[in-house]
């Protein structure tokens, strides 16, 4: 049975979002730690309270790859976390970014998700679409949680609302309200969808009304329709793909965005798998479980970014070695590039994180002082009331 909802802690949300914003030209990825909760009504909820950002073995704008050794190390890390917190923890999902690209998963993402689900039916995928902006140059971040479903067995799943619902306690202000769309009629045509596992040139397929009808044109119109109101993080609603924009000039669609939409949109006819959206809820970490160091995933991300740049620098030097020597100009070039990358990491990642943590520490110290003074005052009043004649003093 597929998942009915996903609950993510705020610390994991912060880690994934900060990791996605570290690079604007390349995709990133990481693994998610948690467990599956079986409810009394038969529903299954994925609880995520940890993240493991992964070093990339291949850096490209349209794909991201990691080494199998890191996947094994993540499993060992999950087992260690289980012993630390006293609760079963395992690799329960993965996340990656789509910079300047639609939030919809590509056919490669859907196929990869399907392979993970062969090992674990509760495996979940998260996509963070960032660095998108409207005509007013207002940034927008979209997030989607999805699973892969066998297209041949899709009709067996009960119909349910697949709107991605993101709730936060205090970190984000508001989201666009999801809008319902009319049900799709039975279709017999060649449809295009970004969440398909393979592509065929000509085919015909009859689909029921619970299957989403989406095409490249609808994806473009969906991006044109979405505008920022008050929040920089926007709720993704798959049903909005049915709506048609009346103003096609509202957003300046660049060539790279159009190319990304074209590549991510594949013909659904004869596909093996299709995406299914899962409602996403962001909760305070204490609502899921108690952790001694809830920001461990965030700090691990900072270490991973440094190790990734260092590994790329050493690999570049190794590739330019000739008989154990490297040309001085090549060494100067790679070293300067490495130092520039470290400066960017310090400026855009490490320094803001340290500043935020220092401010939070100072805020907590002030709050602790206020609470201690309040506690001393309450103890003094309690002693006066419990002492002989204390009640008389209070009355007078």
Automatic annotation (TrEMBL):
GO molecular function, one term: metal ion binding
UniProt KW Hydrolase keyword: yes
Annotated Gene3D superfamilies: Cytidine Deaminase, domain 2
GO biological process: proteolysis
Keywords assigned: Hydrolase, Metal-binding, Metalloprotease, Protease, Ubl conjugation pathway, Zinc
InterPro entries: BRCC36_C (IPR040749), JAMM/MPN+_dom (IPR000555), JAMM_MPN+_peptidase_M67A (IPR050242), MPN (IPR037518), MPN_BRCC36 (IPR033860)
UniProt-recorded name of the protein: MPN domain-containing protein
Lineage, top ranks: Eukaryota, Viridiplantae, Streptophyta, Embryophyta, Tracheophyta
